């Protein structure tokens, strides 16, 4: 009988703990929803939505006095739909995006921002409207226009593991920077990773590859595709593989 009583007490303790845990989760969700509602109400009262944006061909830029960019167009239509003014703040240093958002300098980040576990601890992501892989950007050999395809291929990297003993410049706060570090362990060799701060954007890195200033970089495919129109001597055909669970 004593054994039954002990088992009963243990079971009851487990049930209480589970209920307590569920209750804490529900409370946390309710608090988060309440904060989101308060933020939305504040935005409505202000009459405008403030966007922290990178200055790029896919996010936001000004051409001949006209505001452009795919993400800008999306947000502009969204703002019109809910009857708000759209204010864009371009951020020169992408390292400051999350701190500025969390200290209240903006309401939304507009940027090619990979969803990672670490970032989800700091910010909330919207439902993705676009999924784009990352690609390795490399310069085609000089005189590639007059070379045969197989000659060009011999001088290009075709697998990420071929980055062994190579120099590559990437944004230090990007998901692919961490992936490069892990890749060294996987291939058992060194990759000379040059971390870049958020002042130098993806498009500037692409231009540096095209000019031969740096050897390689990694950027989002949609940005790379746009920039092949300006730099026809870059190759972006090698996909970059992220760790499982990140995109």
Gist of the model:
It contains eight helices and ten strands.
Question: How does this structure look, described?
Answer:
The protein has 247 residues and is α/β, with parallel strands linked by helices. The protein is 42% helix and 20% strand. It has 8 helices and 10 strands. The strands form 4 sheets. A 3-stranded parallel sheet has the order 4-1-5. The chain has a 3-stranded antiparallel sheet with strand order 9-6-10. The longest helix is centred in the N-terminal third of the chain and has 45 residues, at 2-46.
- Separation, N- and C-terminal Cα atoms: 56 Å
Strand order of the largest sheet: 4-1-5
User: Sheet with the most strands?
Assistant: 3 strands, parallel
Helix- and strand-based class?
Answer: alpha/beta
According to DSSP, the number of beta strands is 10
N to C succession of SSEs: HEEEHEHEHEHEHEHEHE
Question: Strand share of the residues?
Answer: 15-25%
Helical coverage, percent range? 40-55%
Instruction: Give me the Rg, rounded.
Output: 24 Å
Give the rounded overall mean pLDDT: 83
- Poorly predicted runs are 1-17, 243-247
Total of DSSP H or I helical runs spanning 4+ residues: 8
Shape: globular
């Amino acid at each position: 009988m004593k054994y039954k009583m002990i088992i009963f007490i243990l079971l009851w303790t487990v049930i209480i703990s589970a209920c307590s845990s569920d209750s804490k989760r529900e409370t946390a969700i309710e608090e988060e929803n309440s904060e989101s509602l308060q933020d939305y109400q504040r935005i409505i009262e202000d009459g405008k939505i403030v966007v922290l944006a990178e200055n790029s061909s896919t996010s936001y830029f000004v051409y001949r006095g006209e505001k452009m960019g795919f993400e800008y167009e999306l947000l502009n239509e969204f703002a019109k739909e809910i009857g708000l003014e759209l204010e864009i703040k371009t951020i020169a240093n992408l390292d400051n995006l999350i701190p500025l958002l969390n200290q209240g300098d903006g309401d939304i980040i507009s940027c090619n921002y990979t969803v990672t576990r670490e970032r989800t601890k700091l910010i909330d992501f919207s439902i993705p409207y676009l999924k784009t892989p990352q690609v390795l950007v490399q310069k085609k050999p000089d005189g590639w226009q007059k070379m045969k395809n197989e000659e060009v291929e011999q001088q290009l990297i075709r697998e990420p593991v071929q980055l062994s003993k190579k120099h590559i410049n990437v944004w230090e706060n990007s998901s692919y920077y961490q992936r490069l570090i892990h890749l060294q362990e996987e291939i058992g060799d060194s990759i000379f990773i040059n971390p870049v701060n958020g002042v130098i954007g993806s498009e500037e890195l692409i231009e540096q590859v095209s000019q031969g200033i740096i050897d390689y970089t990694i950027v989002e495919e949609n940005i790379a595709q746009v920039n092949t129109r300006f730099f026809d001597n870059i190759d972006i055909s090698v996909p970059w593989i992220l760790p499982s669970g990140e995109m």
